[in-house]
Design goal:
Blueprint lengths: L4 H11 L16 E6 L6 H10 L3 E7 L3 H4 L11 H7 L2 E4 L6 H10 L3 E5 L6 H14 L3 E4 L6 H11 L6 E7 L6 H7 L6 H17 L4 E7 L11 E8 L2 E7 L11 E6 L2 E5 L7 E5 L9 E5 L8 H13 L7 H14 L4
Parallel strand pairs: 1-2, 1-3, 3-4, 4-5, 6-9
Antiparallel strand pairs: 6-10, 7-8, 8-9, 10-11, 11-12, 12-13
Helix pairs in contact: 1-7, 5-6, 6-11, 9-11
Length: 346
């Protein structure tokens, strides 16, 4: 059925889970004890700040067993042992370096904790399958930290696409570039997928959630290089579906890349383009009215957005209410499989 543009925007805000920006929401009866396992990933500082400011959680500390990594944290938190993490936490956020994501998430799940694991969650399918099996066995939630799952611009774009606003979708294009320094390049070069594994995975996640499992994935991993590393730093993946194609690119060679990051959906009735991704700006261009939108070129108003905030709010709501997360385990598995295929790592 048709619905109004106002109701669409309101629904988008609800879908994006803007719990943290709602001043009217009552405080939870009990804050969930949360601990961080690892502090070596680039998103640690942002997620630590969001968690400590959330009314949903009580952050008991950070378990980082590598003294060298502890020394890189600008504002040292309360450091705790893994034993204290096991004894006191109910929720564990895995923010260790990429190679430790799967092992650390498995440790936390096997200790009976709900887990938010940084992306990419594993470098193999077997590693990720072990996480899914442990979560199922322990009856605990496993949330993967693809950071734009609650971006209101992307939520609105995917919702419009599913509602038929663009007609029959035949093309998705998306780009996420950055300018990486030597240390980042050396870390990313440890994986064959390079930039696609580290950053392009966010875009693969969104494509899979829109179009499902691709029938064929062709990676193009070019190493333009810099002295001292062999990073695949000009990466493209072509995902083929029965009636559509997606082209994803990622390159850590572009200065001022943020405003140029985009996600675009094109179909037989028009196009939706999210650019930049942050702060999100969504423009639709429709040949005819549909999904509550008039025909023509239009910018869509979007609710407030804070990266990571709604991920944690959704996890807390799922723990408290016993409802499934918005991305079910079977979809998480297809995302993981497709990321590896897009990286030439399957």
């Amino acid at each position: 059925p048709m619905f109004s543009r106002r109701s669409f925007v309101a629904g988008t805000a609800l879908a994006a889970g803007n719990v943290l920006v709602s001043g009217a929401a009552p405080l939870p009866a009990r804050r969930l004890p949360l601990a961080f396992l690892g502090a070596g990933y680039s998103h640690f500082a942002g997620k630590y700040q969001v968690a400590t400011e959330s009314p949903e959680f009580e952050v008991i500390g950070v378990c980082e067993e590598d003294a060298a990594v502890r020394g890189t944290v600008a504002k040292p938190p309360r450091w705790i042992s893994f034993e204290e993490l096991v004894q006191r936490s109910e929720v564990v956020v895995v923010e260790s370096e990429v190679r430790r994501h799967a092992a650390d998430a498995l440790r936390a799940l096997e200790a009976g904790k709900h887990v938010h694991v940084e992306k990419p969650p594993a470098e193999t399918m077997s590693g990720f399958d072990a996480l899914l099996a442990a979560a199922s066995r322990q009856k605990r939630l496993l949330q993967v930290g693809y950071m734009w799952r609650f971006n209101p611009g992307l939520v609105a774009l995917l919702k419009a696409a599913r509602a038929g606003a663009f007609g029959e979708i035949f093309m998705v294009r998306a780009t996420m570039n950055t300018l990486a320094g030597p240390a980042e390049r050396r870390l990313w070069a440890g994986f064959a997928g390079g930039a696609m594994f580290e950053q392009g995975c966010h875009l693969v996640d969104a494509v899979v959630r829109l179009l499902g499992r691709p029938s064929r994935v062709t990676p193009f991993l070019q190493q333009l290089g810099r002295p001292g590393d062999d990073l695949a730093d000009n990466a493209v993946a072509v995902l083929e579906f029965p009636a559509a194609m997606a082209v994803i690119s990622s390159a850590p060679r572009q200065p001022g890349a943020g405003p140029h990051r985009f996600f675009e959906v094109t179909g037989t009735l028009g196009t939706g383009r999210l650019q930049p991704l942050e702060p999100p700006r969504l423009v639709l261009d429709l040949s005819e009215a549909g999904a509550g939108y008039p025909a023509g070129h239009q910018e869509i108003p979007l609710p407030a957005y804070r990266r990571y905030g709604d991920d944690f709010a959704a996890l807390a709501a799922a723990i408290r209410g016993g409802t499934p997360l918005s991305v079910p385990p079977e979809t998480e598995r297809v995302v993981q499989e497709t990321v590896l295929r897009a990286c030439g790592m399957a």
